[in-house]
Structures are given as C-alpha cells and as structure tokens.
Amino acid sequence: xxxxxxxxxxxxxxxxxxxxxxxxxxxxxxxxxxxxxxxxxxxxxxxxxxxxxxxxxxxxxxxxxxxxxxxxxxxxxxxxxxxxxxxxxxxxxxxxxxxxxxxxxxxxxxxxxxxxxxxxxxxxxxxxxxxxxxxxxxxx
Amino acid sequence: xxxxxxxxxxxxxxxxxxxxxxxxxxxxxxxxxxxxxxxxxxxxxxxxxxxxxxxxxxxxxxxxxxxxxxxxxxxxxxxxxxxxxxxxxxxxxxxxxxxxxxxxxxxxxxxxxxxxxxxxxxxxxxxxxxxxxxxxxxxxxxxxxxxxxxxxxxxxxxxxxxxxxxxxxxxxxxxxxxxxxxxxxxxxxxxxxxxxxxxxxxxxxxxxxxxxxxxxxxxxxxxxxxxxxxxxxxxxxxxxxxxxxxxxxxxxxxxxxxxxxxxxxxxxxxxx
Lengths: 140, 272
Fold this sequence. Notes:
The structure holds two protein chains of two kinds.
Chain A: H1 3-22, H2 28-40, H3 46-52, H4 55-58, H5 63-71, H6 75-91, H7 97-109, H8 114-129
Helix pairs in contact in A: 1-3, 1-5, 1-6, 1-7, 2-6, 6-7, 6-8
Chain B: H1 16-28, H2 33-55, H3 64-73, H4 79-96, H5 103-124, H6 145-172, H7 181-202, H8 209-225, H9 233-271
Helix pairs in contact in B: 1-2, 2-3, 2-4, 2-5, 3-4, 4-5, 7-9, 8-9
C-alpha cells in the first residue's frame, strides 16, 4: 500500500461519509455501493480501504482537510471522486440541504467548472440507477 | 441427539414456531447441513415477518431481503443483527439452490441464529429478561480418524473463508464496526453547518449551492422516474420540489442568521 493510495482512500471515504451523513442514515446496500465504487472505479486496494478507515487515522481529519486533499487530486481522479460522492446522494434519491452544501464545497475545492460538475452528476445518475433499493426485490 | 437439551429451548415461550425451526436446524447440523441452513433461513424469515408486522405491516409480503433492509432502516435491526440475518439468508438461499453446504458453515450460522434468538426474544416480549446459557455446539456423531480429519479440514477452510469475507466486508463498507456512527454523523453535520455559515458570510464558492441544487433536482427527477423507482412524473416532480424547497428554506435561514449576526455586530459597534 503506497502513501498515494492511502491518501486517495482517505479522501474518498471522508468525502463519501460526509455525503452519506448529510442525508438520512445510509442502508447497508448504499454503504457497500460506496465501497465497491472505491474498489472498482478508484482502484483502491483492500489494505488502503481498511487503513483509511482506522479510527485513529480518520478521527483527526476535518472537512477542511478533506477539501484540501481533494484539491490536490489529479483532474481525472477528482472527477471520479465527485461522481462517487454524488452517487451516494442519488442512490437514496436525496438532496438534503447539507448534501447540497457538501457537493458545492467539494466541487469548488476541486476547482471544477459548472460543466465539469454536471458531467460528474450525469455519470453518478447512471451508476445510481443501477443500484438496488427498498422498492425492489433483490434475490430473496 | 434428540434427547439432548437444545440451545433454543429458552425460545419456546417467546415464539414456538421459531424455536421449532431452530431445534430442527440443530438436529440436522451434522447429518444434513443443507437442511439445517434451509431451516435457519426459514427461521430468520419468520423473525423478520413478525418484526415487520409490528413495525411496517405494509411490507409484510415483501421478500426477505427487502424486509431486512426496511428493518435496518427503521433502526430495529442493528448492523450486527442485520449482518447475521443476511448471512443466514445468503447461505440458506445457496443451500436451497443446490450449492453444497458444509457442517462448519451450518454450525456457524446456527451460532448466529442462537445470538439472534436472544435479541429477538427481547424484542417480541418487550422488557423480558431473557435467561440464556452459553451456546453448546451439538455433539458430532461418532467418527473415525479419516472422518475427523476431513471435518477439521472443512472447519479450517470455513474459518479461512469467513476471515476473507470479513476482510472484504471491512474494506467495502463506508463505516467500520468499531465506528460510533451517530457521533460521527453529528460531528460531520456540525462541520457542514459551519461551512454553510462560511458560505453565507464569505460568499458562495465557485460551484454555488443554488446551481448544485438545480442540477441535483433535475437528476433526481429522472432517477425517481426510472423503472427501478417507478414513480410517476407527477410524483417524482412533487418529491423533488419538496426537497428543493427544503434546501431553499435552509439556505435562506443561513443567510438570515448571517444578516442578523452582522446587524448585531453593527449595533454593538455603534454603541461602543
């Protein structure tokens, strides 16, 4: 596990948790979708994911730290993180005021243009529409 | 075996159907692990149905995974119980669909079911003091050296699979088992409110919240109309409009709070 992987995993989980906490409590399915996004799209390995979520590592970090780390991500990676964060809100079909605020702050920290932000949102919508939710019957 | 006391005898006075299924699973755990897992799955389904009847009766005919998610959302199922129930559901489904199960898998789920039973008993009889002895694994039938070696190998494999599964789960989930989610939620929401105050005082950042809200509203409307959610255009529009209005209210409140604070400071300055 490199420091770079740990940094990305930390940024991802902090940003994703914040979006989740801005809305209602996320279901296990939404939580797992967030994890899968980290593994499959951001390419994080298991060790980085586990290390990033260690209490003593995460506890000292604030949202300002998260925005600062997000601001240093390469453009492509930043877009992926933004997409994943929006996917969490969309998976619950939720746009609570604090979620809107977090999306605005994070996109701005990444110095996104409005067009770029909208593109991330379109991708997030596509991913979110593939996720199962309460009204659906999934596998018994 | 049948004459031995069962780990689930205590459950009889709380729910005899569930107790009966659990005892049957216990009986089959060595001789027929597939059947044991099937009985345990049925037991979990009855537990979930009973709890749903108490809490969300309109979902009583849903399938098990939907009922479990709903119970989890309503806070009745904690993460630990939900994990145990999903594990039994998953292994029970595998057994029903013809995948070979092993005794160690069935034994692990039996132990999960025993833990769930104690929790379930306290829920169905509120305030009941449930007295339970330690879990006592059903005694295996007499086995020769090669059978014993095979069983130990299967147990070691089961341990390894379970450890692997735990690790994957730990990597995937947004929050860890050790995390105090309500405390974390409280802290993060506090920080977000502070950022809201900063935006009101210092001006909106590059991608302003009004723009974000409009984009989200348009996307959510499409998501709610997607067949997965199945809302009519009218319902989707109403849903999104109410969320958008909540955002606007919160946004105006933050602005008003900032303006009030600024006016107060100006008054203080004039008085000084």
